[in-house]
Amino acid sequence: MEKLQNDPRTREFANQPDFQNIIRNLQANPSSLMTHLSDPRVSKALSVLLGVDLSAMGGGAGGMDDDDAEMEDADAPFTSPKPHQSTASSSSTPAPKKGDPKERPKNLTEEQKKAWDEKDIGNEAYKKKDFETALKHYDAAIELDPTNVTYQTNKAAVLFEQGKHQDCIELCMKAIEIGRENRADYQLIAKAFGRIGGAYVKLGDYKSAKTYYEKSLAEHRDPAIVKKVQEIKKTIQEEQRKADINPELAEEEKNKGNEFFKKGDYPTALKHYSEAIKRNPSDAKLYSNRAAAYTKLLEFSLGIKDCDECLKLDPSFVKAHIRKASILLAMKQPSKAAHSFEKALQLDPDNQEAREGLAKVTLENQSNPEEARRRAMEDPEIQEILGDPAMRMILEQMQKDPRAVRDHLKNPEVASRLEKLVAAGLVGMR
Q: Buried b / exposed e across 296-323, counting CB within 10 Å, b at 16+?
């Protein structure tokens, strides 16, 4: 923030509360950058921080469509009550190609020609960020041709740039109403809806923004708006996730879950553990507790998933390693179970539960070695190890010269793979 406060390009807005909220949001959730990149202040800030002139790289101003820097030019005015009917007379020169914003339609009245000229002057002023002058000429264009939707939405873009987001919304609503009455092109209606969505983003009303972006897509499926909807959905989900966080309530739900778990009511315990996780998703122990409930309900794959999430948050959580090993044993995956027990013992060499679990795996392998080998060969991890040409060469070397194992054990990755083969009963080492 200090760099932004000192740079003349960003000094004037660096201390604005809403801008600082945006920066904090970006720090907490970098994936929301696309949602805020439409704010010219964010673009300027990135230019200062990265030392790159982002304004020279294109993109729409004010969170609007890509052509906003030049504004949208009007198609030929709509004089027929039928939608999308050509305005060219049956015997005159055909109207200009649709989508060519530089060419003025040839079948305009004198008033409409003047309105077009006012719009062009407004566009030039807009490009120069001379918003007051742009407003003056857009207002003149609207007065001369009040049924042209583009003049309304161009003016709305100026209001957006001036931070008058509610006024921008109201004017776009009016533009849509005018467009409906005059059978305006659906793409112009879509643009007005999209502009409303952008204004709601600036106001922090992401649900309304999503609603109006989706209304825009209902009129015309613009890929840029599709992307904005995807980003806004992520933002809404993240906002909801943050709103749900309440560590005190999480503790209450965990305690309720523990009570029902002790009573043997595992479905209800699961419900409370899930609510606890929702309220405090960074607490590793909650995932371990829910994994225990899943295990009792024989939902082993979900139990493994929670153990993995727990260990991602806290790799040193011994109980989670043991719990995962126990589930893997129940799933008839003794080699993976042995690996998890060994992880627990690396963290706590005196842990009796881990020692007993590893001994159980070893005993099962020794009591029925053929069955142990068969199960091991069905394990994808074991298959991957045995399918590695380098490992096959090491195993052949060890078979010819057992003393070679000492050199190979110096390589941590090779040692880990050999331990898994030993635990699976496929390799013996003395």
A: eeebbebbbebbebbbebeeebbbbbbb
pLDDT by residue (tens digit) across 325-383? Answer: 999 988 888 878 888 999 999 999 999 999 999 888 877 766 666 666 676 676 777 78
**CA separation for the pair 261, 268 (Å, rounded):** 8
DSSP string, 78-121: --SSSTT---S-TTSPPPPPTT-TTSPPSS--HHHHHHHHHHHH
Q: How many C-beta neighbours within 10 Å does residue 194 have?
A: 28
Hey, what are 388's tokens?
């590695």
DSSP letters of 47-82?
Answer: HHHHT--GGGG---GGG--TTTTT-PPP-S---SSS
Q: Between residues 336 and 282, which one has the greater pLDDT?
A: 282
CB 273 within 8 A of CB 258: no
Residues 6 or more apart in contact with residue 366 via CB below 8 angstroms: 425
Q: At 393, which amino acid appears?
A: M
* pTM for this predicted structure: 0.50
The Cα-based distances of 49 to 22, 42, 43, 89, 323 in angstroms read 15, 10, 10, 56, 47
